[in-house]
Amino acid sequence: MSVDVLERAVEEYNRFRSPEAFVRIIERRRDRFVAEFSGSFCVTCGVYDWLEDLRYEIRKLDPRLDAVIEDWKQVSDDAIIVEFKLVRKPVE
81: how many CB neighbours lie within 10 A of its CB? Predict the structure, then answer.
């Protein structure tokens, strides 16, 4: 995956969701990445939707790429760590 796609997706996510939610990439691997989501959204219902929104930003930039949530955990009152697996869809 192009690092550029992930960086641009994070920029778009933060531009439209901050200050309620802010994401930063804390680890990158070949087909996975770990992101920290922070902000007041952590105390709302529908927390999972905030996490999935990063998937939509990635897919907007590259429709053949998806980021599937593999695992997540709340690490403080205002931070969640999420592990994503990147999946490239075949070209049709």
Answer: 17
Please give the tally of structural domains in the chain. Answer: 1
CATH number at residue 20: 3.30.1360
pLDDT values of the chain reduced to their tens digit, one per residue, 92 residues: 556 899 999 999 999 999 999 999 999 988 899 999 999 988 888 898 999 999 999 999 999 999 999 999 999 999 999 999 999 988 76
Question: Domain range spanning residue 52?
Answer: 3-88
Give the Cα separation of 9 and 24 in Å (integer). Answer: 11
pTM across the whole model: 0.86
Retrieve residue 44's tokens: 């709302």
